[in-house]
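It would be a great kindness if you could assist me with a short task in structural biology. The matter concerns a single protein, recorded as an amino acid sequence and a row of backbone structure tokens. Kindly check, if you would, that the fold set down in the tokens agrees with what the sequence suggests. Thank you for your consideration; the sequence and its tokens are set out here:
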Amino acid sequence: MKARHSGINVFTHIHKQTNKNNYICPDRDTIYQAMKKLALILATLLMTASYATAQKEDNNYEESICIDTFIGKSPEFPGGTDSLYKFLESNLKYPEDAKKDSIQGRVICRFTIDTDGSITDIQVLRSVHPSLDAEAVRVISAMPKWVPAEIDGKKIKRQYVFPIVFKMD
């Protein structure tokens, strides 16, 4: 018997034997071979379907966190990373309700650094607690203008993903 499925030719040969009661049934090896072929067909179909689904989902990459290669000068907090941490230490306030309930965690935010260094479009990508999220957004919006990203000497907008950790001592 020859079956055609998704561009794959499958040949199945079932040898029939007659047992004592004159019932026709294939031997175990033939059944095993046919099941292996069927499993291969199903696995191929599942892989094809999952690949097609992944291609559809890949079109929505803007909603996910992407790691990309950036050739140029990345945006920078004025004074560098040390100044950024000093700014966070002096301006970040642990919300009282979160402190009272012993809530801690990492709020991940994304924001855009505009061509003039100003911060726009602050979004919480991973939430911990509403008051911690609000404090993270507040402290990011209070930051001074950054040194914007550049490509070939031209200032450009650039998104920046930044975690703010709230940890009780």
Notes: Strands lie at 2-5, 8-11, 16-18, 24-26, 105-113, 119-126, 149-151, 154-156, 158-166. Helices lie at 28-58, 81-91, 96-100, 130-141. The mean pLDDT is 76. The longest helix spans residues 28-58.
